[in-house]
Specification:
transcription regulation; three-stranded antiparallel sheet; single chain; AAA family ATPase; mainly alpha; Rossmann fold; Arc Repressor Mutant, subunit A; five-stranded parallel sheet; 48 helices
Length: 932
């Protein structure tokens, strides 16, 4: 089942607050306790609760928070509580001798006077409420919480024994009508969703993990870091792989509370487990502790919630990864080295090498051998992340210039091989200082290519491309660079040099070594595959021809290219080749072949290291799945793709995936379409055009059409952004024709249809609806029934892609019904409904069902068809408008804000094509739907 993309924690908390208010109103009151560690966002949630209360109920909102400096002052909080406005004219001045019950009764009396019709009462930081005020509240709460009162409390955990937060938790947990809501530290996925919501673009998984480490999952710390970003930094985030982390506070970490309370032996055991960074068997834990000469103490950290057992006690792990990180940050350097040396002895592979490096006080020849052997093995098996981590850790230890230079080279070559050169940009200055060499210059060029909006060092590029050398290593690097330059030039807004660069690259690969045994530096062996690069370069020539609309040349080249690709060994270059030819097949209108090749490329991704076009491989298949109406599989693929899109080289896929998600959400009536569209609009800011460069425009058109907004379709399908698109098949023009017809602008629609007829199969494809469908709609609008029927019959006779096919059937059904062919109309419309139900196209289903009811064969009037486009809530608004009610009256009757009603009224008038609310009653009479 297709799931929505992860929602921002801020969005989820707003939605939770709205649900709580709705429940409180429905049951006549509710008590909510929001609990969590410091910085998790309890105050934010209480504030959202207040906002939701103001918008969704007629209850006034009162807010008070306790203060730590007053927690020893009797009745100090009650005075704050009174000052919130809940107790007008409060002049009651209790002192230390005053008993709580009289104060509580006075509070109740005033509450009944001032909040007789209900209230939202929010109290934050209850852990600091003074003892006397706590006793007053314990008396008051049970006597008001079912009197149309929403009580919301914010309490910091962990609770101390007998604290007010603990009392509230116990009190509320016994009531099935009340709620205790725990706010946990944010996860990496939640942090990435928060960043997307706040910044308008996503961040990489790696950046999410860095933010998690910097914030310990704190909502407030994350918010502070994101607010520190400058407008210029935010504007470039959609093109880069990281963001600067500033503004993280150094407050006492609340995650360490349980650890601080442990005895010394328990802390020592906990440190071993946390430094291990993985599950530890009891035997390994005891072995490590024995090497350190320490006892093992597990009962205390388990009871404190710091460590936990898994596998029925077979292994020990930190209770939470954030807790483990917080504890690691407190351990002294000498202690870290001692534990790491012990762990290196009892582990193997990556873990052993990493622990050995962490445990060493200085670099040694033996360590160098371990590192080189492990990195070589890891890279050969696709372990780029582990290899990078080992090399980075080794760099921290290397103390002589020669060793450090070799490690830097190894790290750069590893990242270039893994297509993640952007991850070493922080070391750019050190690479600049390396001794001159072909390899060093090559690395600097690659780093420059990853910098946002920076110019390539053209002089260095040309020097390496023109290099005449007898050294096989230099010739290999030069050939590989020529391939990268082809890719970089294709990703510009001026690809005119691509054919010449491809020819030059072919020449260099023909001169390069054909066997890695010729190389002096084994780290470059992965670059040696000249025959495979020659195939890929020929595929890139086809991509260029496609962009230049030289489609006959593309069609002629594809059969031989696909044969050569099949002969290639499975690997990343084969995937890149499949990406190129699958896009070309789709450009030729050969949908089945394009989808088959795209799927083959994605299947290979599971078995090979990432290719240069990893994102595009998945994007093409996802686009095919969306066109084919398989939204569930498309959604699953998009979920996966969005996880890695911000780590992939082809950054242009990031907004395109968001656009595809927006299209699916629009068709299926999903939530939060605007957020997906906001991310998709970054596609317009990328200077080069990748696959499906107009997907953001298509998403805007689909969202507008699904909402019944033809004017919105016209706005989305015109303007400078649309005019500058070149690598496009102008599917948005299909939407535009339909919108022009809906708006009665028939001459413009006719002119555009003729243009599409001339462009058919070259500049415009019928993936989004056939020419016969458009001509049928136009003839119908002009009253030419015979022409309309002829085109409709041709349109539905062809098995097209499901959504446009269903909408064609639906339009044909309406036409037949109006022509009096009721039985035929019923059959045609049922076919449309069957397809839409299979697709889950909820945004269209209700309108199609309403436009023609099998139980009532009479043709619907134009007014009735307009009413059928409204949602249930909009229909309620219409009925009240017809009665002449004001926005304030409607808001009161529907328990929503006036602003919400104002927005609904604007949408209703737009959908009904009315200029004023006074015309609503007339339209209802025309539709035969006048309210009684």
């Amino acid at each position: 089942m297709l799931r929505d993309s992860p929602y921002s924690p801020a969005f989820e908390r707003r939605r939770f607050a709205a649900d709580v208010v709705q429940k409180a109103v429905a049951q006549g009151g509710l008590t909510l306790l929001v609990e969590g560690m410091a910085g998790m966002g309890k105050t934010f949630l209480l504030r959202e609760l207040g906002i939701a209360g103001q918008e969704s109920s007629s209850w006034p909102v009162y807010f008070a928070n306790a203060d730590e400096i007053e927690c020893g002052e009797p009745y100090s909080f009650i005075e704050r509580f009174a000052a919130s406005g809940l107790f007008d004219g409060w002049d009651f001045e209790p002192d230390r001798e005053t008993q709580p019950i009289p104060v509580a009764r006075e509070c109740l009396r005033r509450f009944r006077e001032n909040a007789a019709d209900g209230a939202v009462v929010l109290i934050d930081d209850v852990q600091w409420i003074d003892t006397e005020s706590q006793r007053v509240l314990r008396y008051v709460i049970p006597r008001i919480h079912r009197r149309h009162v929403l009580l919301g409390f914010g309490a910091r955990t962990p609770y101390e024994q007998g604290s007010f937060g603990q009392v509230l938790a116990e009190l509320i947990s016994h009531s099935p009508q009340d709620l205790v809501h725990q706010i946990d530290p944010l996860t990496t996925d939640e942090i990435r969703a928060f960043a997307a919501d706040r910044l308008g673009t996503g961040v990489s998984a790696r950046t999410g993990e860095r933010l998690l480490k910097a914030t310990s999952g704190s909502f407030l710390r994350l918010d502070a870091i994101l607010r520190q970003l400058t407008p210029d930094e935010v504007a470039h985030l959609h093109l880069i792989w990281d963001l600067p982390i500033r503004g993280a506070t150094s407050d006492e970490n609340p995650l360490l509370h349980g650890f601080r309370e442990l005895s010394a032996p328990a802390r020592a055991t906990t440190e071993i487990v946390c430094l291990a960074g993985h599950e530890m068997s009891r035997a390994d834990l005891h072995a490590a502790a024995d090497l350190l000469g320490e006892p093992v103490e597990l009962s205390e950290p388990s009871a404190a919630g710091v460590l936990s057992e898994s596998g029925f006690g077979a292994t020990i792990v930190p209770r939470h990864a954030l807790v483990a990180q917080a504890i690691r940050d407190t351990i002294a350097a000498d202690r870290v080295r001692a534990i790491s040396r012990a762990l290196a002895t009892i582990t193997s592979g990556y873990r052993s090498v990493r622990h050995a490096l962490k445990g060493a006080e200085q670099w040694s020849e033996e360590l160098g051998k371990q590192v080189n052997y492990y990195v070589s093995e890891a890279l050969d098996h696709g372990g780029f992340g582990n290899a990078s981590d080992i090399l980075r850790t080794a760099l921290d230890l290397a103390d002589d210039t020669a060793t450090r230079q070799e490690l830097l080279i190894s790290l750069a070559v590893a990242h270039i091989r893994g297509k993640t050169g952007y991850l070493i940009l922080d070391l750019a200055d050190e690479y600049e200082r390396l001794p001159p060499s072909t390899l060093r210059d090559f690395i600097l060029i690659v780093l420059a290519a990853h910098r946002v909006e920076s110019e390539l060092p053209q002089e260095q590029v040309m020097a390496l491309l023109a290099l005449e050398s007898s050294d096989p290593d230099d010739r290999t690097v030069s050939a590989f660079l020529s391939f990268l330059v082809v890719i970089m030039t294709m990703r510009t807004n001026d690809p005119s040099m691509v054919p010449l660069l491809i020819d030059h690259a072919r020449t260099l690969f023909e001169k390069a070594p054909a066997d890695a045994v010729e190389l002096g530096d084994a780290r470059l062996a992965w670059m040696v595959a000249p025959q495979e690069y020659l195939v890929l370069l020929d595929c890139y020539r086809t991509v260029h021809d496609q962009r230049m609309f030289e489609l006959p040349a593309v069609a002629e080249a594809l059969p031989e290219l696909e044969r050569r690709i099949e002969e290639m060994p499975d690997g990343p270059l084969k995937v890149d080749s499949l990406v190129a030819v699958s896009g070309a097949e789709l450009a030729l209108g050969r949908f089945a072949a394009g989808e088959r090749l795209a799927r083959r490329g994605v299947e290979l991704l599971d078995r090979v290291s990432e290719p240069w076009a990893a994102g595009t491989a998945r994007l093409i298949l996802a686009d095919c799945l969306v066109l084919r109406g398989d939204y569930a599989e498309a959604g699953t693929l998009i979920d996966l793709s969005e996880e890695i899109a911000f780590d992939a080289l082809d950054v242009e896929t990031r907004p395109t995936f968001a656009a595809l998600r927006a299209i699916i959400a629009a068709i299926r009536g999903g939530r939060d379409i605007e957020r997906h569209l906001e991310l998709a609009r970054h596609q317009h800011e990328i200077m080069w055009e990748g696959y499906a460069a107009d997907t953001a425009v298509m998403a805007e058109c689909e969202a507008a059409r699904a909402a019944g907004d033809p004017e919105g379709v016209l706005r989305a399908s015109q303007g400078p952004t649309v005019d500058r698109l070149s690598n496009t098949h102008r599917g948005y023009l299909t939407y535009r024709v339909l919108a022009l017809i809906d708006l009665g602008r028939l001459d413009q629609a006719a002119d555009l249809i003729e243009e599409l007829a001339a462009w058919r199969d070259v500049h415009w494809l019928e993936y989004w609806g056939s020419l016969d469908w458009l001509r049928a709609r136009l003839a119908e609008a002009r009253g030419d029934a015979s022409t309309a029927r002829r085109h409709y019959e041709s349109a539905v006779a062809v098995d097209g892609l499901p959504l446009p096919q269903a909408l064609t059937f639906a339009d044909f059904g309406v036409f037949l019904n109006e022509q009096g062919a009721h039985e035929e109309a019923r059959r045609v419309t049922e076919k449309a409904i069957e397809i839409l139900e299979r697709l889950g196209a909820e945004a269209y289903l209700s309108a199609v069902r309403a436009r023609f009811s099998p139980a009532s064969p009479a043709a619907q009037s134009p007014a009735a068809r307009l009413l059928a486009t409204l949602t249930d809530r909009e229909r309620q608004i219409v009925e009240q408008l017809a009665e002449g009610r004001s926005n304030n009256q409607i808001a009161e009757s529907m328990v929503v804000s006036v602003a919400t009603v104002r927005s609904h009224v604007s949408n209703v008038l737009r959908k009904l094509r009315l200029s004023s609310r006074g015309e609503v009653a007339r339209l209802l009479r025309e539709a035969g739907a006048t309210p009684e």
